[in-house]
Amino acid sequence: MEVFTSILTLIAGLGVLMIGMKMLSDGLERSAGKGMRKMFGKISDNRFAGIGVGAVATVLVNSSAATTVMVIGFVNAGLMTLFQATSIIMGANIGTTLTGVIIALSGFDIGVYMAILAFIGVAMMMFCKHDTAKKIGSAIAGLGLMFVGLSFMSDALKSSEVMSSALQNLFVAVDFPLLLILIGLVCTALFQSSTAMTALVVTMAAPVAGGAPIIPMQSALFIILGTNIGTCVTAIIAAVGASTNAKRTATIHLLFNAIGTIIFTTVIWIFQDGVVWLFGQMTSSTQMQVALFHVFFNVITTLMLVPFIKPLTKLATAFVKEKRGGDDEAPHMYYIDDRFLQTPPIAVAQVKREVDNMAAMAKTNLKRSMIAVFTQDLSDREKVEKDEQRINFINKGVSKYLIKLSSLALLRSDEKFVGSLHHVVSDIERIADHAENFMEIATEMRENDCVFTQDALDELEDMYDKVTAMFEEAMYIFENNAVDRLKGFSEREEEVDITKRLLGNNHIARLNAGGCTVESGTYFYSIISALERIADHLTNIAFSIKSPSGSQREAMEKIAYEQRRRTHERKHSGKSLLEGLQDKADGQGQGDTDDLRSGEY
Fold first, then answer.
1. pLDDT at 433
2. Which residues in the chain show pLDDT less than 50?
3. pLDDT number for residue 266
4. Domain 341-550 is classified in which CATH homologous superfamily?
5. Cβ–Cβ under 8 Å, residues 470 and 489
6. DSSP classification of residue 322
7. Alpha helix stretches (DSSP H) within 105-160
8. Pick from 73, 75, 67: which is nearest to 95 by CA?
9. Hey, where are the domains in the chain?
10. Which residues are CB-contacts of 52 (< 8 A; sequence separation ≥ 6)?
């Protein structure tokens, strides 16, 4: 019964440890979300910068496997080269060692004090009002829970002499290096986390009854080598069904760790006692010795292979051949990938890029179709049809992706942004539909030998120029969150409405004067009406940064309210709270009263 209880406690401790790791990574991700987006937005061909990015990203997500999967997503989307991916993977292997060092601190009798962080973190999450403080509290609570889990695991091994003795005998019997490497590999693949396996090895390296550790240092070294290969399994699984280069990225990850393992296995096998003695001189804690070996392995392997990044990529290219017969013209997503969902801040940045790309395609289709209307040149008709299929595909893909994103732990600003994107992609898709309709009108006009008068063409071109300018402005506002430009944009939209009414009146005048046919007039009115609706969709896109539904009225009300609130705060900044409340009671600032009633204050 004692053994059974110890096993349950060990499993529970491992579970608490992994929950703590998850909370730590979520808290760090949410705290540094914008920083991560900027960091990955500045990827270059500088191998040392790539190593730095990989290391920092891995510390933030608390998992080298998660970083590698994210990199595979970038490569799969064609946003990162194999060279860039290789340097980041090297950095990820270094970054993951920090968690092992933190875990090894439990060997210095500070576990109880570190566990207090769980209480401190939870208190911050409950009582702090600032969102950033809550995120930091989550990370602190996660760190504390990791030490709570380690304490459970350590107590489980120490409380049962039968179990600890059995495990000690097992590792005395199983001392063949390759078998130990295999154990580390398989267990890491099952846990899907090298950090969790490292934590287990570190815990078993602590002295138990009799003063001897469950797993001797010699055996621990080879198991750690196995964990470095086992962590590649996650990347290999992530690369299944991905592009050729994504599979090559996973192969590079495996090659990197395999080469390092082969070199270190050879050295340790030959100079085993010397290696154990060397780490023993660094610290008396066997747990810290294991963690330091993990650091040494990844740092030295990186130093050895960083000059050979290009040969590594060539070797991976030789192993994974290019697919033949693929349809590059088939509709596909350009920037988003389910692999990014492991790191929500990056996923949000990528979905924004996908929406920007979708808008650019719609704008290009609008230009092609309007040129066809002006010139009756239908040479771009096939391009318009193909891009319309792509836009429809992206619209459905982004909508599904947004639903998945909504279920994740996002920054508050990202939650609002993701909510608004549902309407934005719908508006872009409708603009693309209007562009397709323009091409159909141009086709019918050519088939029926119907033409516009020069006056009609000039008017159409003028209105189209206004809508094009709105398109550029709307996307600038959307991409840069330029709230200060919304008022001017609203005036542009009113100008297009006025232009549409004016052109409609001119059209009727030409009809009455016999200047154009009824048939051409029908096409003319259809086009100006559609251009006016496109302007409405662009207005929705621009105002989505203030209102999730894209409502211009709602957004302008929010902007006006914020301006009134700032004015009110400046006006009453020198008054006491009682005086300020009295002002409201006396009926001052009717707009503020309305805002309070609506619950927006």
1. 95
2. 325-327, 561, 572-601
3. 93
4. Phosphate transport system protein phou homolog 2; domain 2 (1.20.58.220)
5. yes
6. P
7. 111-127, 131-159
8. 67
9. 2-319, 341-550, 566-598
10. 91
